[in-house]
Amino acid sequence: MKAIAVRPGTPNSVHLAELEKPAVTDIPDGRGVLTRVLKVGVDATDREINDALYGNAPPGYDFLVIGHECFGIVEEIGPSVRRVKVGDYVTCTVRRPGGSIYDRIGRSDITSEEQYYERGINLRHGYLTEYFVDDEEFVVRIPVGLKHLHVLAEPMSCAAKAVDQAILAQKRLQVWEPKRAWVTGAGQIGLLSTLILRLRGIEVLTLARGRKPNLKAEIAEGFGSTYISTQDYSLKELAATHGKPDLIIEATGSSELAFEAMQILGHNGCMVWTSITGGTRKTEVPSDSINLNWVLGNKLLVGSVNANFRHFESGIADLALGEVTWPGVIQKILTTPVQGLDNYKEMMRLLVEHKDALKVYVNVAEG
Ligand code: BGC
Ligand code: ZN
Fold first, then answer.
1. What is the architecture of the domain spanning 2-142+335-363?
2. What is the pLDDT of residues 114-159, one digit of tens each?
3. Does 146 contact ligand 1 (Cβ within 6 A)?
4. Domain map of the chain by residue range?
5. What mean pLDDT is reported for the chain?
6. Nearest protein Cα to ligand 1, atom 11
7. Is the pTM for the entire model greater than 0.90?
8. Measuring CA to CA, which of 209, 280, 287, 324 is 20 to 30 A from 15?
């Protein structure tokens, strides 16, 4: 069967590869779920893997099948599978366990090992192919009524984890009632984080470069957030007019902005960094002032990557709630479809050149 792959280490090596069709019996103890791939989303991670910034092939291969945001339909299950049945729409988690205590309790998203295994990213093939098989432990059901939001389940799981980490970490304060949140960045993680926070009744400012009117602003404001262009106001000015935030979800992809935002977080606040900044940029920061302010304000910085099964489930539940609360808004994120695996060059071109594309995804098959 066909697959879209790269040769890790070689820039711009995206190509069509051939893989053997997997079988449920590839997974031990009758726990295999064979899924026919319908759609796969791509993001900056896929672009940076194709730029050879990171990513590794699975052992025994000189290529890596990319794509970690999948949506498919279950075609066959092993005899022990209970969670899903044939015909269910599903997605699948990304990270696979290593050997740490966290990996052993189903929390490979917080593995303590430096090496991690991620389908489509590091040491495991991804989903940009016709079929995949996996252990039912990693397969997540998507209700039929959310079929139209398909590949958003994975980015939503990352946003769900980011917000959840803040809420869990802020238990340190005994009481935390965040009223104001800022989301920096209005890509998929920024917009989906905006959605989750608005569903919890928090006042949200969504900040991004582009001036209104634009699609990002339309979506953020569709969730009842206030969208502001950072070309018009500095973060300091915004803190003076709107008040300092209790929570910042940082999702710009710019480490410079991540440090700038540290300077305006309110006392007892929490900031979550979610961007994978795969570069070598350096930036000068007012370190004395940040240090002083963070100590005097008991502030907290949390890094958040990936997501586990539970975050997928809560993310999917919030997609459903978001859909009935602001009908039709979430699907506006799904801007840019590409027809078929054969169009892999077009897929990568859109990912690199089409800066306004909120979500490029490949229609792999009908279903
Ligand atoms: C993926 C995450 C992954 C991270 C780091 C993101 O694009 O959505 O699942 O953990 O990249 O590789
Ligand atoms: Zn991703």
1. Alpha-Beta Complex (3.90)
2. 999 999 999 999 999 999 999 999 999 999 999 999 999 999 999 9
3. no
4. 2-142+335-363, 158-303
5. 97
6. 45
7. yes
8. 280
